[in-house]
Amino acid sequence: MAYKTDIEIAQEAKLRPINDIAATLGIPDEAVENYGRYKAKIDIHALRELPEKGKLILVTAITPTPAGEGKTTTSVGLTDGLRIIGKDAVVALREPSLGPVFGVKGGAAGGGYAQVVPMEDINLHFTGDFHAIGAANNLLAAMLDNHIQQGNALGIDVKQITWKRAVDMNDRQLRHIVSGLGGKMQGVPREDGFEITVASEIMAVLCLASDLKDLKERLARIIVGYTFDGRPVTAHDLKAEGAMAALLKDAIKPNLVQTLEGTPALIHGGPFANIAHGCNSVTATHTALKLADYVVTEAGFAADLGAEKFVDIKCRIAGLHPSAVVIVATVRALKYHGGVPKTDLNEENLEALEKGLPNLLQHVSNVKDVFGLPCVVAINAFPTDTEAELRMVEDRCRELGVNVALSEVWAKGGEGGKALAEEVVRLCEQPNSFGYTYELDQPIEEKIRAIAKRVYHAKHLLMLPAAKKKAAELEKLGFGKLPICMAKTQYSFSDDPSLLGAPEGFTVTVSNVKVCAGAGFIVAYTGDIMTMPGLPKVPAAEKIDVDENGRITGLF
């Protein structure tokens, strides 16, 4: 049987005008700024006086594998399912980055019959938010280098510049460069580099700011480097925050689109979870909570990265209190964690499933016991799943007091998400003991240790001398009470991507720490994490094309 591709399904859909979608949410016309017929930005200031009424549902997942998990697909299908059972629901998602779209992962607008549309626009330029973020990032870089060129009145040490340029593309060639070559009038020669836009601190700032005023204040606090005597230099010192905020004045407004079934979707911001905090914007989440009774959102990668940062960074900063968590898993992915190669995942293998299940169970335990939230496991169904395999997952989860719901949203849309929706509604009515992984007044190293031991289940934490020294400097500068943003591989609970399942006895090694004073967190770097990915040997871009009528193909 030949299945339609995601883009074929999306292109066959009949979309409703975006003003009709806005009207279903009760958004006044003056708050809707159209970007064509099927996209709009929402003016958050026009909705300022509306109270928040919604219950917040987080969708997270097991540790990702090449077999795929389907977190965005589940988020979309769950929200459609909530609408089908009569609930007023909105989904709030991140925007895709062009890097993965043209690299390995492909698009990020859901899949099958659980997608947000127009998927081509969402996966490509959308409303220009990422371009604005890149422009603001690079304006700050240009003003920094210009200040040095024009006499360096602030006494900036070019060997202690921490601000990089940004481009929303996987381009390893730009990781480490030398800029300013060519003579006296071409700038000051120095080592430089690029980050992918989703790793830029400005992405984090945009996603954590509550409004334009807060955005500008956060931009002003960004540290770009240090002086010869060790004083931090900020964007405010360079008088850059006003112009940067001007570039971002529209980008801070959430984007409104729809699912294939006409369910409202707010898609805004897109920091990666392995190198940034991995959540959509605070403005989109708060806006959704004002407009619907149930708000489904997701955090990047697995619960050890995305859910931890959602709780310890986003919820803390934005004052959010989730009501329930959905943990997405597939039988295929669990068998991969149990040692089955990707080519053999379609065969029933209860022994491998048993070996892989601890990965899921550890994520479940973290959500329940560390974050104090009720959860349901959503099994993203594949035709190759057997009754015995599904029963094994259900039985093992029930031992932890957690229900399992079969999610068939890829094939059936909202109808395939009704059982999951009903369980989520039930969980939202239960009391919970929501809490954080650590306290903010703990020393930086102890906060990192709490994440490593409580969430990753590491035996030891090793802070390398450079990391210890930097942590001490940041505490001395007054940054010690900020939350932690771990930069770690998404493929393992550990910092070694080859350790699948639920590894034991490992050590997490932190090589460096860096303050993002504008975003309001400290990044701890582990393993070989880089803030500029590279393209694979066969990038997805090779399959993407557009015909003479403007119809895009190959985008999945």
What is the strand and helix layout of this fold?
Blueprint (H helix, E strand, L loop, with lengths): L5 H7 L5 H7 L7 E3 L5 E3 L12 E7 L9 H14 L4 E5 L4 H5 L7 E2 L2 E4 L1 H5 L5 H21 L6 E6 L3 E3 L9 E3 L10 E3 L1 E3 L4 H8 L3 H10 L1 E5 L4 E3 L6 H8 L6 E5 L4 E4 L14 H10 L2 E5 L4 H16 L5 E6 L1 H7 L12 H21 L4 E6 L6 H12 L5 E4 L1 H4 L5 H11 L15 H12 L4 E4 L1 H12 L7 E4 L19 E10 L4 E6 L18 E2 L5 E2 L3
Parallel strand pairs: 3-16, 3-17, 4-15, 4-16, 8-11, 17-18, 18-19, 20-22, 21-23
Antiparallel strand pairs: 1-2, 2-14, 5-6, 6-14, 7-12, 9-10, 12-13, 14-15, 22-23, 24-25
Structure, described:
This protein is of the alpha/beta class and 556 residues long. Helix content is 34%, strand content 19%. The chain is built from 18 helices and 25 strands. The strands form six sheets. Strands 1, 2, 3, 4, 5, 6, 14, 15, 16, 17, 18 and 19 form a twelve-stranded mixed β-sheet that branches. The protein has a four-stranded mixed β-sheet with strand order 20-22-23-21. The chain has a three-stranded antiparallel β-sheet with strand order 7-12-13, with helices on one face. A hairpin with a 5-residue loop joins strand 24 and strand 25 (552-553). Helix 6 packs antiparallel against helix 9, helix 8 (212-221) crosses helix 9 (241-248) and helix 12 (331-337) packs across helix 13 (350-370). The longest helix has 21 residues, at 129-149.
